[in-house]
């Protein structure tokens, strides 16, 4: 290859580079955009409001607990409770595991299982584990009682929640009458 051929190749590469730079400069002239004084975008954010546990309780009370509990099945509750048994004991006189023992939990005051260290939020909750409370708590515990240390995603299906509540109620010295 002689020097004339190399000169043509170099000239073509330089011409393409100048053409790209020239098009960029020409487009800046044609499509002039004013740059903002401060870069970035202003994003309007609504203030998040926290739902207190009493508000959450009121929302669940709108659900007809009697019809919800009629969907439940104790055998299904025992099967679904296996998810809970990784952290909770359900046998009479059972010991606390990662979570407190749940024998006699229905009708019991929240946060009072002996020899178990509850989160501050659950200790201060000061309610009883009624069918309504358990239903709301089992939907999503962290949302129902803000600050609870129970890291369970919850039970979305109504039939599963009703079945687990019936199963918990059955595992008691004196089961409460169903609504």
SSE pattern, N- to C-terminal: HHHHHHHH
Under CATH, the topology of the largest domain can be stated as: Cytochrome Bc1 Complex, Chain D, domain 2
Examine the secondary-structure arrangement and name the CATH architecture of the largest domain: Orthogonal Bundle
Could you estimate the helical fraction of the residues in percent? Answer: 40-55%
* Poorly predicted segments: 53-61
Q: What global shape is seen? A: elongated
> Which strand-content bin applies to the residues?
under 5%
Biggest sheet character: none
**Assembly classification:** single chain
What is the number of strand segments? 0
Rounded radius of gyration (Å): 32 Å
What is the CATH homologous superfamily assignment of the largest domain? Answer: Cytochrome c-like domain
On the 0-100 scale, what is the average pLDDT? 86
CATH class of the largest domain: Mainly Alpha
Number of domains: 2
